[in-house]
Amino acid sequence: MVLLILSAMFILSWQITIVALVLLPLFLVPARLVGRRLGGLFRRSMDLNAQMNNVMTERFNVAGAMIVKLFGSPAKEVTYFEQRAAQVRDIGVEQATYSRIFFVTLSLTASLATAFAYGFGGLAVTWGTISKGTIVALTLYLTRLYGPLTQLSSLHLDFMTALVTFERLFEVLDLEPTIKEAPDAVAMPEGPVAVVFDHVDFAYPAAAEVSLASLEAVAVLDDTPRTEVLYDVSFTVPAGTVTALVGPSGAGKTTMSMLVSRLYDVDRGSVTIGNVDVRQATQVSLSDTVGVVAQDPHLFHDTLRANLLYARPEATVADMEMALRSAQIYDMVSALPLGLDTVVGERGYRLSGGEKQRVALARLLLKSPRVVVLDEATAHLDAESEAAVQRALDETMARRTSIVIAHRLSTIRNAHQILVIDAGRIVQRGTHDELIAMGGLYNDLYQTQFAGQEGR
Protein backbone atom coordinates (compact mmCIF):
# COMPACT_ATOMS: atom_id res chain seq x y z
CA MET A 1 0.00 0.00 0.00
CA VAL A 2 2.88 2.37 0.85
CA LEU A 3 4.44 1.72 -2.58
CA LEU A 4 1.17 2.48 -4.33
CA ILE A 5 0.83 5.75 -2.42
CA LEU A 6 4.42 6.77 -3.27
CA SER A 7 3.86 5.91 -6.95
CA ALA A 8 0.74 8.04 -7.12
CA MET A 9 2.49 10.92 -5.32
CA PHE A 10 5.49 10.67 -7.69
CA ILE A 11 3.18 10.95 -10.69
CA LEU A 12 1.45 14.00 -9.21
CA SER A 13 4.64 15.79 -8.01
CA TRP A 14 8.05 14.19 -7.85
CA GLN A 15 9.45 17.17 -5.86
CA ILE A 16 7.00 16.80 -2.96
CA THR A 17 7.43 13.03 -3.07
CA ILE A 18 11.22 13.32 -2.67
CA VAL A 19 10.80 15.63 0.35
CA ALA A 20 8.37 13.12 1.87
CA LEU A 21 10.98 10.36 1.40
CA VAL A 22 13.71 12.52 2.93
CA LEU A 23 11.57 12.92 6.05
CA LEU A 24 11.01 9.17 6.45
CA PRO A 25 14.19 8.59 8.54
CA LEU A 26 12.79 11.06 11.07
CA PHE A 27 10.17 8.40 11.85
CA LEU A 28 12.64 5.52 12.14
CA VAL A 29 15.55 7.09 14.03
CA PRO A 30 13.52 8.40 17.01
CA ALA A 31 11.76 5.04 17.26
CA ARG A 32 15.10 3.24 17.65
CA LEU A 33 16.67 5.77 20.02
CA VAL A 34 13.63 6.35 22.22
CA GLY A 35 12.68 2.66 22.13
CA ARG A 36 16.11 1.66 23.44
CA ARG A 37 15.95 4.32 26.14
CA LEU A 38 12.41 3.37 27.17
CA GLY A 39 13.43 -0.29 27.31
CA GLY A 40 16.13 0.56 29.83
CA LEU A 41 13.75 2.73 31.84
CA PHE A 42 11.11 0.00 31.85
CA ARG A 43 13.65 -2.56 33.09
CA ARG A 44 14.71 -0.19 35.87
CA SER A 45 11.06 0.52 36.68
CA MET A 46 10.35 -3.20 37.12
CA ASP A 47 13.36 -3.54 39.44
CA LEU A 48 12.22 -0.58 41.55
CA ASN A 49 8.67 -1.88 41.71
CA ALA A 50 9.98 -5.27 42.83
CA GLN A 51 12.02 -3.61 45.59
CA MET A 52 9.02 -1.54 46.74
CA ASN A 53 6.73 -4.58 46.74
CA ASN A 54 9.36 -6.52 48.66
CA VAL A 55 9.38 -3.81 51.34
CA MET A 56 5.59 -3.89 51.56
CA THR A 57 5.44 -7.68 51.73
CA GLU A 58 8.26 -8.10 54.23
CA ARG A 59 7.87 -5.14 56.58
CA PHE A 60 4.21 -4.16 56.39
CA ASN A 61 2.60 -7.56 56.86
CA VAL A 62 1.37 -8.65 60.29
CA ALA A 63 4.65 -10.11 61.55
CA GLY A 64 6.84 -7.44 59.95
CA ALA A 65 4.70 -4.55 61.24
CA MET A 66 4.89 -6.00 64.74
CA ILE A 67 8.70 -6.11 64.62
CA VAL A 68 8.79 -2.53 63.31
CA LYS A 69 6.63 -1.33 66.21
CA LEU A 70 8.50 -3.33 68.84
CA PHE A 71 11.81 -1.84 67.76
CA GLY A 72 10.37 1.66 67.50
CA SER A 73 11.17 2.10 63.80
CA PRO A 74 7.88 3.14 62.11
CA ALA A 75 9.24 6.56 61.10
CA LYS A 76 12.40 5.05 59.63
CA GLU A 77 10.42 2.45 57.68
CA VAL A 78 7.99 5.08 56.39
CA THR A 79 10.91 7.20 55.20
CA TYR A 80 12.53 4.17 53.53
CA PHE A 81 9.28 3.27 51.77
CA GLU A 82 8.72 6.88 50.67
CA GLN A 83 12.18 6.89 49.10
CA ARG A 84 11.38 3.70 47.17
CA ALA A 85 7.98 5.05 46.14
CA ALA A 86 9.58 8.34 45.01
CA GLN A 87 12.01 6.42 42.79
CA VAL A 88 9.11 4.54 41.21
CA ARG A 89 7.24 7.83 40.72
CA ASP A 90 10.23 9.61 39.17
CA ILE A 91 11.01 6.85 36.71
CA GLY A 92 7.32 6.67 35.79
CA VAL A 93 7.36 10.41 35.02
CA GLU A 94 10.53 9.97 32.96
CA GLN A 95 8.94 7.14 30.97
CA ALA A 96 5.85 9.22 30.29
CA THR A 97 8.00 12.21 29.26
CA TYR A 98 10.01 10.19 26.73
CA SER A 99 6.81 8.66 25.32
CA ARG A 100 5.15 12.07 24.90
CA ILE A 101 8.27 13.57 23.30
CA PHE A 102 8.41 10.66 20.88
CA PHE A 103 4.80 11.01 19.77
CA VAL A 104 5.08 14.81 19.54
CA THR A 105 8.15 14.37 17.32
CA LEU A 106 6.28 12.05 14.98
CA SER A 107 3.30 14.40 14.82
CA LEU A 108 5.60 17.37 14.18
CA THR A 109 7.37 15.51 11.36
CA ALA A 110 4.06 14.68 9.69
CA SER A 111 2.89 18.28 10.13
CA LEU A 112 6.09 19.64 8.60
CA ALA A 113 5.62 17.43 5.54
CA THR A 114 2.04 18.61 5.16
CA ALA A 115 3.09 22.25 5.62
CA PHE A 116 5.79 21.85 2.96
CA ALA A 117 3.26 20.31 0.59
CA TYR A 118 0.90 23.25 1.03
CA GLY A 119 3.74 25.82 0.85
CA PHE A 120 5.49 24.43 -2.20
CA GLY A 121 2.18 23.47 -3.77
CA GLY A 122 0.83 27.00 -3.28
CA LEU A 123 3.79 28.46 -5.09
CA ALA A 124 3.41 25.87 -7.85
CA VAL A 125 -0.24 26.81 -8.24
CA THR A 126 0.68 30.51 -8.65
CA TRP A 127 3.25 29.46 -11.25
CA GLY A 128 0.61 27.43 -13.01
CA THR A 129 2.63 24.18 -12.87
CA ILE A 130 0.16 22.32 -10.65
CA SER A 131 -3.55 22.47 -9.90
CA LYS A 132 -5.32 23.03 -6.58
CA GLY A 133 -6.91 19.57 -6.73
CA THR A 134 -3.46 18.00 -7.07
CA ILE A 135 -2.30 19.78 -3.89
CA VAL A 136 -5.32 18.48 -1.98
CA ALA A 137 -4.69 14.97 -3.31
CA LEU A 138 -1.00 15.11 -2.31
CA THR A 139 -1.80 16.19 1.25
CA LEU A 140 -4.30 13.36 1.57
CA TYR A 141 -1.70 10.92 0.28
CA LEU A 142 0.78 12.27 2.84
CA THR A 143 -1.75 11.60 5.58
CA ARG A 144 -2.22 8.03 4.31
CA LEU A 145 1.57 7.61 4.10
CA TYR A 146 2.57 8.94 7.50
CA GLY A 147 -0.36 7.39 9.39
CA PRO A 148 0.86 3.77 9.02
CA LEU A 149 4.46 4.88 9.61
CA THR A 150 3.45 6.52 12.90
CA GLN A 151 1.65 3.33 13.92
CA LEU A 152 4.66 1.20 12.99
CA SER A 153 6.97 3.45 15.02
CA SER A 154 4.63 3.19 18.00
CA LEU A 155 4.54 -0.58 17.57
CA HIS A 156 8.35 -0.65 17.67
CA LEU A 157 8.23 1.33 20.90
CA ASP A 158 5.72 -1.06 22.43
CA PHE A 159 7.80 -4.01 21.28
CA MET A 160 10.96 -2.67 22.97
CA THR A 161 9.18 -2.22 26.31
CA ALA A 162 7.37 -5.56 26.03
CA LEU A 163 10.70 -7.24 25.27
CA VAL A 164 11.90 -6.34 28.77
CA THR A 165 8.86 -8.07 30.26
CA PHE A 166 9.46 -11.14 28.11
CA GLU A 167 13.12 -11.23 29.16
CA ARG A 168 12.14 -11.47 32.83
CA LEU A 169 9.36 -13.93 32.04
CA PHE A 170 11.64 -16.21 30.06
CA GLU A 171 14.25 -16.02 32.82
CA VAL A 172 11.70 -17.57 35.16
CA LEU A 173 10.42 -20.07 32.60
CA ASP A 174 13.98 -21.16 31.76
CA LEU A 175 14.84 -21.73 35.43
CA GLU A 176 14.98 -25.49 35.82
CA PRO A 177 12.88 -26.82 38.72
CA THR A 178 14.98 -28.63 41.30
CA ILE A 179 12.29 -31.26 41.86
CA LYS A 180 11.06 -33.07 38.75
CA GLU A 181 8.80 -36.04 38.41
CA ALA A 182 10.56 -38.95 36.71
CA PRO A 183 9.11 -39.94 33.30
CA ASP A 184 8.63 -43.50 34.58
CA ALA A 185 7.37 -42.45 38.04
CA VAL A 186 5.24 -44.99 39.91
CA ALA A 187 2.51 -44.58 42.51
CA MET A 188 3.20 -45.32 46.16
CA PRO A 189 2.11 -48.81 47.25
CA GLU A 190 -1.04 -49.24 49.29
CA GLY A 191 -1.04 -50.19 52.96
CA PRO A 192 1.50 -49.49 55.73
CA VAL A 193 4.90 -48.30 54.51
CA ALA A 194 8.37 -48.04 56.02
CA VAL A 195 10.74 -45.08 55.58
CA VAL A 196 14.40 -45.85 54.89
CA PHE A 197 17.37 -43.44 54.69
CA ASP A 198 20.27 -45.20 52.98
CA HIS A 199 23.69 -43.46 53.26
CA VAL A 200 22.18 -40.01 52.62
CA ASP A 201 24.40 -36.98 52.03
CA PHE A 202 22.79 -33.60 51.45
CA ALA A 203 23.67 -29.93 51.02
CA TYR A 204 21.19 -27.15 50.37
CA PRO A 205 21.40 -25.85 46.78
CA ALA A 206 23.20 -22.59 46.06
CA ALA A 207 21.09 -19.48 45.45
CA ALA A 208 21.88 -19.48 41.71
CA GLU A 209 20.41 -22.99 41.40
CA VAL A 210 16.99 -22.12 42.78
CA SER A 211 16.40 -18.41 42.18
CA LEU A 212 17.22 -15.32 40.11
CA ALA A 213 18.64 -11.96 41.11
CA SER A 214 15.63 -10.24 39.51
CA LEU A 215 13.26 -12.24 41.72
CA GLU A 216 15.25 -11.50 44.87
CA ALA A 217 15.41 -7.73 44.18
CA VAL A 218 19.21 -7.80 44.40
CA ALA A 219 21.92 -7.06 41.87
CA VAL A 220 23.82 -10.32 42.45
CA LEU A 221 22.70 -13.50 44.16
CA ASP A 222 24.50 -14.77 47.22
CA ASP A 223 27.47 -16.82 46.01
CA THR A 224 28.15 -18.64 49.28
CA PRO A 225 29.37 -22.14 48.34
CA ARG A 226 27.26 -25.15 49.22
CA THR A 227 28.05 -26.78 52.55
CA GLU A 228 27.12 -30.30 53.59
CA VAL A 229 24.24 -30.56 56.06
CA LEU A 230 23.84 -34.35 56.35
CA TYR A 231 26.65 -36.91 56.26
CA ASP A 232 26.10 -40.63 55.56
CA VAL A 233 22.73 -40.79 57.35
CA SER A 234 21.19 -44.27 57.46
CA PHE A 235 18.19 -45.49 59.44
CA THR A 236 14.88 -47.29 59.02
CA VAL A 237 11.46 -46.35 60.37
CA PRO A 238 9.46 -49.61 60.28
CA ALA A 239 5.85 -49.39 59.19
CA GLY A 240 3.51 -48.35 61.99
CA THR A 241 6.28 -47.27 64.38
CA VAL A 242 7.42 -43.93 65.79
CA THR A 243 10.97 -42.65 65.31
CA ALA A 244 12.02 -39.48 67.11
CA LEU A 245 14.79 -37.13 65.99
CA VAL A 246 16.44 -35.14 68.75
CA GLY A 247 19.53 -33.02 69.00
CA PRO A 248 20.73 -29.43 69.24
CA SER A 249 19.41 -26.71 66.96
CA GLY A 250 20.95 -26.74 63.50
CA ALA A 251 21.86 -30.42 63.70
CA GLY A 252 19.86 -31.31 60.55
CA LYS A 253 16.62 -32.71 61.98
CA THR A 254 14.24 -30.53 59.95
CA THR A 255 16.35 -31.10 56.86
CA MET A 256 15.80 -34.84 57.20
CA SER A 257 12.04 -34.30 57.42
CA MET A 258 12.14 -32.24 54.22
CA LEU A 259 13.81 -35.11 52.37
CA VAL A 260 10.96 -37.45 53.36
CA SER A 261 8.37 -35.22 51.66
CA ARG A 262 10.84 -34.53 48.82
CA LEU A 263 11.03 -30.80 49.19
CA TYR A 264 14.66 -31.42 48.23
CA ASP A 265 16.49 -34.32 46.62
CA VAL A 266 19.43 -36.03 48.27
CA ASP A 267 22.91 -35.56 46.80
CA ARG A 268 23.99 -39.13 47.47
CA GLY A 269 22.21 -42.19 48.79
CA SER A 270 18.43 -42.56 48.75
CA VAL A 271 15.22 -42.05 50.72
CA THR A 272 12.63 -44.77 50.13
CA ILE A 273 9.03 -45.11 51.29
CA GLY A 274 7.44 -48.52 50.89
CA ASN A 275 10.52 -49.68 48.91
CA VAL A 276 9.96 -46.87 46.39
CA ASP A 277 12.64 -44.20 46.02
CA VAL A 278 10.85 -40.87 46.53
CA ARG A 279 12.56 -39.62 43.34
CA GLN A 280 10.77 -42.37 41.41
CA ALA A 281 7.34 -41.75 42.97
CA THR A 282 4.61 -39.61 41.44
CA GLN A 283 4.21 -36.27 43.17
CA VAL A 284 0.50 -36.83 43.80
CA SER A 285 0.92 -40.21 45.45
CA LEU A 286 3.86 -38.96 47.53
CA SER A 287 1.90 -35.96 48.83
CA ASP A 288 -1.03 -38.27 49.61
CA THR A 289 1.27 -40.60 51.53
CA VAL A 290 3.23 -38.05 53.59
CA GLY A 291 1.69 -35.48 55.89
CA VAL A 292 3.68 -32.76 57.68
CA VAL A 293 3.01 -30.35 60.54
CA ALA A 294 5.80 -27.79 60.53
CA GLN A 295 7.29 -25.99 63.48
CA ASP A 296 5.58 -22.77 62.39
CA PRO A 297 2.42 -23.95 60.57
CA HIS A 298 0.99 -21.73 57.87
CA LEU A 299 -2.71 -20.93 57.79
CA PHE A 300 -4.22 -19.11 54.83
CA HIS A 301 -6.06 -15.82 55.26
CA ASP A 302 -9.38 -17.61 54.99
CA THR A 303 -11.93 -19.39 57.15
CA LEU A 304 -11.20 -22.33 59.40
CA ARG A 305 -13.36 -24.43 57.09
CA ALA A 306 -11.29 -23.50 54.01
CA ASN A 307 -8.02 -24.20 55.84
CA LEU A 308 -9.23 -27.65 56.87
CA LEU A 309 -10.68 -28.50 53.47
CA TYR A 310 -7.33 -27.67 51.88
CA ALA A 311 -6.17 -31.08 53.14
CA ARG A 312 -9.23 -32.96 51.84
CA PRO A 313 -11.68 -30.91 49.74
CA GLU A 314 -14.36 -33.61 49.83
CA ALA A 315 -14.42 -33.85 53.65
CA THR A 316 -17.80 -33.48 55.34
CA VAL A 317 -18.62 -31.36 58.37
CA ALA A 318 -18.64 -34.56 60.47
CA ASP A 319 -15.11 -35.37 59.24
CA MET A 320 -13.89 -31.90 60.18
CA GLU A 321 -15.50 -32.06 63.60
CA MET A 322 -13.87 -35.44 64.26
CA ALA A 323 -10.46 -34.04 63.29
CA LEU A 324 -11.00 -31.00 65.52
CA ARG A 325 -11.96 -33.20 68.44
CA SER A 326 -8.87 -35.36 67.97
CA ALA A 327 -6.73 -32.22 67.90
CA GLN A 328 -8.39 -31.05 71.13
CA ILE A 329 -9.65 -27.80 69.61
CA TYR A 330 -13.30 -28.57 68.85
CA ASP A 331 -14.60 -26.80 71.97
CA MET A 332 -12.75 -23.60 71.06
CA VAL A 333 -14.01 -23.63 67.45
CA SER A 334 -17.60 -24.41 68.42
CA ALA A 335 -17.54 -21.48 70.89
CA LEU A 336 -16.70 -18.99 68.13
CA PRO A 337 -19.67 -16.93 66.88
CA LEU A 338 -19.07 -18.01 63.27
CA GLY A 339 -17.64 -21.44 64.08
CA LEU A 340 -15.91 -22.98 61.07
CA ASP A 341 -16.62 -19.83 59.05
CA THR A 342 -14.35 -17.74 61.27
CA VAL A 343 -11.57 -16.03 59.29
CA VAL A 344 -8.18 -16.79 60.89
CA GLY A 345 -6.31 -13.79 59.46
CA GLU A 346 -3.00 -13.60 57.65
CA ARG A 347 -0.89 -16.64 58.63
CA GLY A 348 -3.52 -17.31 61.33
CA TYR A 349 -2.55 -14.29 63.44
CA ARG A 350 -6.03 -14.11 65.01
CA LEU A 351 -5.35 -17.43 66.74
CA SER A 352 -2.92 -18.03 69.56
CA GLY A 353 0.20 -20.07 68.89
CA GLY A 354 -1.31 -23.16 70.49
CA GLU A 355 -4.63 -22.77 68.66
CA LYS A 356 -2.88 -22.38 65.33
CA GLN A 357 -0.78 -25.48 66.03
CA ARG A 358 -3.87 -27.53 66.86
CA VAL A 359 -5.70 -26.36 63.73
CA ALA A 360 -2.68 -27.54 61.74
CA LEU A 361 -2.85 -30.88 63.55
CA ALA A 362 -6.56 -31.15 62.72
CA ARG A 363 -5.74 -30.47 59.07
CA LEU A 364 -3.16 -33.27 59.16
CA LEU A 365 -5.60 -35.68 60.79
CA LEU A 366 -8.20 -34.81 58.16
CA LYS A 367 -5.71 -35.66 55.42
CA SER A 368 -5.04 -39.01 57.12
CA PRO A 369 -1.63 -39.76 55.57
CA ARG A 370 0.20 -43.05 56.06
CA VAL A 371 3.48 -41.31 56.97
CA VAL A 372 3.36 -38.51 59.53
CA VAL A 373 6.15 -35.97 60.05
CA LEU A 374 5.80 -33.75 63.12
CA ASP A 375 8.36 -30.96 63.40
CA GLU A 376 7.97 -29.62 66.97
CA ALA A 377 4.20 -30.02 66.59
CA THR A 378 3.57 -29.38 70.29
CA ALA A 379 6.08 -26.57 70.67
CA HIS A 380 3.49 -23.81 71.25
CA LEU A 381 1.16 -25.69 73.59
CA ASP A 382 0.80 -25.21 77.31
CA ALA A 383 1.21 -28.21 79.60
CA GLU A 384 -2.50 -29.06 79.67
CA SER A 385 -3.00 -28.71 75.92
CA GLU A 386 0.22 -30.60 75.23
CA ALA A 387 -0.96 -33.57 77.27
CA ALA A 388 -4.32 -33.61 75.47
CA VAL A 389 -2.79 -33.27 72.01
CA GLN A 390 -0.13 -35.83 72.83
CA ARG A 391 -2.87 -38.37 73.59
CA ALA A 392 -4.49 -37.62 70.24
CA LEU A 393 -1.15 -37.90 68.47
CA ASP A 394 -0.33 -41.19 70.20
CA GLU A 395 -3.63 -42.60 68.99
CA THR A 396 -3.05 -41.27 65.49
CA MET A 397 0.58 -42.37 65.20
CA ALA A 398 -0.20 -45.86 66.48
CA ARG A 399 -1.60 -46.69 63.04
CA ARG A 400 0.95 -44.77 60.97
CA THR A 401 4.64 -44.56 60.26
CA SER A 402 5.74 -41.49 62.18
CA ILE A 403 8.82 -39.27 62.37
CA VAL A 404 8.74 -36.83 65.28
CA ILE A 405 11.19 -33.96 65.76
CA ALA A 406 11.27 -32.72 69.33
CA HIS A 407 13.34 -30.62 71.67
CA ARG A 408 11.04 -31.39 74.59
CA LEU A 409 12.10 -34.92 75.34
CA SER A 410 9.00 -35.63 77.42
CA THR A 411 6.99 -35.90 74.18
CA ILE A 412 9.05 -38.73 72.68
CA ARG A 413 9.89 -40.99 75.64
CA ASN A 414 7.62 -43.72 74.27
CA ALA A 415 9.03 -43.64 70.74
CA HIS A 416 10.05 -47.02 69.35
CA GLN A 417 13.36 -45.52 68.22
CA ILE A 418 15.18 -42.31 69.06
CA LEU A 419 17.89 -40.96 66.79
CA VAL A 420 20.26 -38.39 68.25
CA ILE A 421 21.49 -35.99 65.54
CA ASP A 422 24.54 -33.78 65.90
CA ALA A 423 26.27 -31.82 63.14
CA GLY A 424 24.45 -33.74 60.41
CA ARG A 425 25.29 -37.20 61.71
CA ILE A 426 23.48 -39.81 63.77
CA VAL A 427 25.60 -40.09 66.90
CA GLN A 428 23.29 -42.28 68.98
CA ARG A 429 20.22 -44.46 68.46
CA GLY A 430 17.98 -46.58 70.67
CA THR A 431 15.01 -46.31 73.02
CA HIS A 432 14.78 -43.74 75.78
CA ASP A 433 15.97 -46.14 78.48
CA GLU A 434 18.80 -47.46 76.31
CA LEU A 435 20.06 -43.97 75.54
CA ILE A 436 19.90 -42.89 79.18
CA ALA A 437 21.92 -45.94 80.17
CA MET A 438 24.34 -45.28 77.33
CA GLY A 439 25.11 -41.72 78.44
CA GLY A 440 26.38 -39.24 75.87
CA LEU A 441 24.54 -36.38 74.17
CA TYR A 442 21.00 -37.67 74.75
CA ASN A 443 21.62 -38.13 78.45
CA ASP A 444 23.10 -34.61 78.60
CA LEU A 445 20.01 -33.15 76.93
CA TYR A 446 17.72 -35.11 79.22
CA GLN A 447 19.54 -34.09 82.37
CA THR A 448 19.51 -30.46 81.26
CA GLN A 449 15.73 -30.51 80.88
CA PHE A 450 14.67 -32.75 83.76
CA ALA A 451 17.42 -32.83 86.39
CA GLY A 452 15.73 -32.40 89.77
CA GLN A 453 12.21 -32.59 88.26
CA GLU A 454 11.59 -36.32 87.83
CA GLY A 455 13.32 -39.62 88.14
CA ARG A 456 14.41 -41.63 85.19
TrEMBL record:
Record-level GO cellular component terms: plasma membrane
Main location: membrane
Pfam families in alphabetical order: ABC_membrane, ABC_tran
UniProt cross-references to SUPFAM superfamilies, sorted A to Z: ABC transporter transmembrane region, P-loop containing nucleoside triphosphate hydrolases
Membrane topology, record value: Multi-pass membrane protein
One of the record's GO molecular function terms: ATP binding
Domain called ABC transporter: residue spans: 210-448
Bilayer-crossing regions: 12-34, 101-118
Protein localization: Cell membrane
Keyword Nucleus: no
Protein name per Swiss-Prot or TrEMBL: Unannotated protein
UniProt organism field: freshwater metagenome
